[in-house]
């Protein structure tokens, strides 16, 4: 799933190449992806793209005050093309969800791999009309995000750090991959309880959160959409690397597998050598 660094890089890339162009038409191929009906997608036709921004993991195209908001979910992606197909797409089970065509012949292809379609598109007058945006917590990539902001999020919450980092209503934009990277950098267990962090642990978490996301954003800046996934994977130290040596201490990176996701961590760096049981709702092995 693209997280805030990749979505921000996508927004920058698409803004640079789309701002100032008029929307020729919007073609919906996967109607289940469209979550709104008023205004219809045709209301975007003829409007000029004025900006492309990000809200957490949501991408927001502003066309003269009307917004096309996209959430790419786990397997969605956007590619900009200099030349778009002349024939409208046929609705079906293929990966294409939506096309946005601009007046110079270029456009966006919004696709999602797999049989389970979770990608979502909204046409709204205000991004806050999108429920997922309305409930977003503070964004750790924002310039003003402070240690006190993180402390306020963690205070009194009896949730594990993995859950704290990935709950979009608490912190916007962090997903499964970067939460693993943040916790490894901070040398904290994914099962540590947020409310029980001491000042020194909270300092480490804050610094890791900011540095991991900023470093990922810097690596992603300037890359074309097709290069972002490979760059993200190459920059990860523990996520997706179960069985490989930890780049810090050399211990074997372990994982815990859940129903629809997994986490990776280093026992030496994060859990004082203890191994987490690899089952849902597991606890530290004694």
TrEMBL record:
The keyword Magnesium does not apply. GO terms for biological process: base-excision repair. Pfam families: Fapy_DNA_glyco (PF01149), H2TH (PF06831), zf-FPG_IleRS (PF06827). Keywords: DNA damage, DNA repair, DNA-binding, Glycosidase, Hydrolase, Lyase, Metal-binding, Multifunctional enzyme, Zinc, Zinc-finger. PROSITE patterns: FPG_CAT (PS51068), ZF_FPG_2 (PS51066). Residues 237-271 form the FPG-type domain. It comes from the Bacteria. It catalyses: Hydrolysis of DNA containing ring-opened 7-methylguanine residues, releasing 2,6-diamino-4-hydroxy-5-(N-methyl)formamidopyrimidine. GO terms for molecular function: 8-oxo-7,8-dihydroguanine DNA N-glycosylase activity; damaged DNA binding; DNA-(apurinic or apyrimidinic site) endonuclease activity; lyase activity; zinc ion binding. The keyword rRNA-binding does not apply. Signal peptide: none annotated. Its cofactor is Zn(2+). InterPro entries: FPG_cat, FPG_N, H2TH_FPG, Ribosomal_uS13-like_H2TH, Znf_DNA_glyclase/AP_lyase, Znf_FPG/IleRS. Residues 2-79 form the Formamidopyrimidine-DNA glycosylase catalytic domain. PANTHER family: FORMAMIDOPYRIMIDINE-DNA GLYCOSYLASE (PTHR22993). Belongs to the FPG family. This is Fpg/Nei family DNA glycosylase.
């Amino acid at each position: 799933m693209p997280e805030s660094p990749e979505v921000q890089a996508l927004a920058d890339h698409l803004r640079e190449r789309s701002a100032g162009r008029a929307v020729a038409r919007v073609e919906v191929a996967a109607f289940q992806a469209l979550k709104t009906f008023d205004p219809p997608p045709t209301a975007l036709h003829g409007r000029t793209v004025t900006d492309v921004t990000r809200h957490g993991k949501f991408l927001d195209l502003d066309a003269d005050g009307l917004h096309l908001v996209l959430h790419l979910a786990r397997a969605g992606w956007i590619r900009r093309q200099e030349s778009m197909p002349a024939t409208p797409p046929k609705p079906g089970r293929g990966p294409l969800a939506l096309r946005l065509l601009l007046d110079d012949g270029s456009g966006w292809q919004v696709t999602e791999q797999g049989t389970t379609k979770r990608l979502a598109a909204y046409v709204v007058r205000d991004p806050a009309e999108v429920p997922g945006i309305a409930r977003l917590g503070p964004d750790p990539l924002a310039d003003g995000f402070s240690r006190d902001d993180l402390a306020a999020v963690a205070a009194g919450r009896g949730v594990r750090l993995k859950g704290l980092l990935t709950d979009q209503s608490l912190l916007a934009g962090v997903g499964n991959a970067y939460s693993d990277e943040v916790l490894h950098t901070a040398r904290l267990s994914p099962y540590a309880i947020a409310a029980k962090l001491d000042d020194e642990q909270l300092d480490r978490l804050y610094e890791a959160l900011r540095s991991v996301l900023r470093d990922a954003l810097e690596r992603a800046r300037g890359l074309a959409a097709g290069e972002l996934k490979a760059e993200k994977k190459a920059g990860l130290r523990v996520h997706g690397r179960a069985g490989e040596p930890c780049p810090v201490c050399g211990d074997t990176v372990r994982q815990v597998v859940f129903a629809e996701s997994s986490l990776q961590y280093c026992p030496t760096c994060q859990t004082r050598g203890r191994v987490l049981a690899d089952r849902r709702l597991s606890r530290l092995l004694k």
